[in-house]
Write a structure and sequence with these properties.
420 residues; alpha+beta; Porin; 60s Ribosomal Protein L30, Chain: A; 2 domains; eight-stranded antiparallel barrel; four-stranded mixed β-sheet; 8 helices; 22% helix; rod-shaped; transmembrane; ion transport
């Protein structure tokens, strides 16, 4: 009985808390009313005279109910039930009619336990409450020693579980297992003897199949609606804000940025890629600046000395993903720039310096930075540079970023070039 009381308390607290829940929700476009009809078996226990017991299972049981959901998790239902209880094998014949009416709280365990993450057709309800019952017995009607003068009136408490299978948005196939415990039952189920009439009396188990019909103008019923809470919406907003961050400040959000390391002031396209229409490895805005400040002399753009200045200035970088030694596809333009310089000055010597971010051990990052430099060298050789023109150095961690935010570590995972 303690278990029953505990379950009723849990369901009751859930109903009481629904007001808190609804203040956190944002959508009421779902149906809340339903009607339920069930039929099945009954098993009565405990309150029998010596030598009597009921058939297992005994048919039949029927119940009908109306349910209202405050929100997708909690609701109330009013239902009535009928049980026909009769004798078991080798027991004197009796027929008892048991009726009940109950008001019950309903908890939608399918929503509480997030069934929507793996199914949209299977649900589970828990219900529990209390009500009024009465019973009569037609086996002793007219008999001299009958115990029933009229109905035996009593109180009941009950709990149950209802698995659901959604057939359509309007109809659900249900199963149900319910337990009913009588209070102040005066007559045994067989109708031949009195009980103490105080405290808890007989108990009834019901197992049923039935249908639930949803009422209302909306497409879905509360049983099958996932209603996000305010905290869910705050999490979504936080995720959107994170997506809209623009780490390199080029005006393109990170989640769309195909070149997340654009140089400061770079002019980029809608994908965040630095614009270089003529493909010479120099961003168009830098090229335009040179033209304007060189009195319209465009030959300076292809001048090897200028290219050398650009390389040694640190503007030309190749970037890498976390723990990766393969360059970002979007940053291989820097390698092309150095390749063009080596074609213009076939005797030049280039030092390729690899770096890693400050996360991880020194030995690991030293090796990672070396592999990054070696891979860039291999790309330059594949583009026509001589391996003898290139030397590689793994610098390890770039400690300039040691105390910086994690989002800026992307700038540390790079290869730079130096003309010797």
């Amino acid at each position: 009985m303690k278990k029953i009381s505990y379950l009723l308390s849990v369901i009751g607290l859930g109903i009481f808390a629904h007001a808190q829940e609804t203040t956190e929700t944002v959508n009421n476009d779902y149906n809340k009313w339903s009607i339920e009809a069930n039929g099945g078996a009954v098993k009565a226990r405990k309150a029998f005279a010596p030598g009597y017991y009921s058939e297992t299972p005994s048919f039949f049981h029927a119940d009908f109910g109306v349910r209202y959901m405050f929100n997708p998790k909690f609701g109330l239902k009013l239902d009535g039930g009928y049980d026909r209880i009769k004798e078991g094998e080798d027991v004197a014949r009796f027929r008892s009619n048991y009726y009940r009416v109950d008001l019950q709280g309903v908890a939608n365990l399918g929503r509480i336990m997030n069934f929507e993450t793996w199914t949209n057709r299977i649900g589970l309800l828990a219900h529990g409450g209390a009500g009024y019952s009465w019973m009569n017995n037609d086996a002793t009607k007219g008999a001299d020693g009958k115990v029933f003068d009229d109905n035996d009136n009593m109180v009941n408490v009950m709990v149950g579980l209802t698995p659901q299978l959604r057939l359509t948005d309007r109809v659900v196939l249900t199963g149900d297992v319910s337990y009913v415990r009588n209070i102040r039952q005066n007559v045994t189920f067989d109708g031949t003897a009195n009980t103490s009439g105080s405290g808890f009396g007989g108990e009834i188990w019901n197992a049923t199949l039935g249908l639930t019909f949803y009422l209302g103008k909306n497409q879905k019923h509360a049983d099958w609606v996932y209603e996000p809470t305010r905290s869910d919406l705050e999490d979504r907003i936080s995720n959107i804000e994170q997506m809209l961050k623009d780490t390199d400040g080029d005006g393109v959000a990170d989640y769309l940025d195909q070149e997340p390391d654009s140089a400061p002031g770079a002019v980029v396209d809608t994908h965040g890629v630095t614009i270089d229409h003529n493909g010479n490895g120099i961003p168009d805005n830098i090229e335009e600046y040179i033209k304007q400040n060189a009195g319209g002399n465009t030959t300076i753009v292809n001048d090897a000395d200028f290219l050398e200045q650009m390389i040694n200035s640190g503007i030309i970088n190749v970037y890498f993903d976390y723990n990766s030694d393969k360059p970002y596809q979007q940053s291989v333009g820097g390698i092309k720039f150095v390749s063009e310089y080596l074609k213009a000055k076939p005797n030049a010597q280039i030092e390729i310096l690899g770096y890693a971010d400050p996360v991880g051990g020194d030995a690991f990052n030293k090796d990672l930075s070396r592999r990054r430099a070696e891979n860039v060298k291999a790309i330059l050789v594949s583009q026509g540079a001589s391996a003898s023109q290139l030397t590689t150095v793994g610098e390890g961690k770039d400690n300039e970023f040691k105390n910086s935010q994690v989002s800026s570590h992307q700038l540390a995972r790079r290869v730079v070039f130096r003309v010797k």
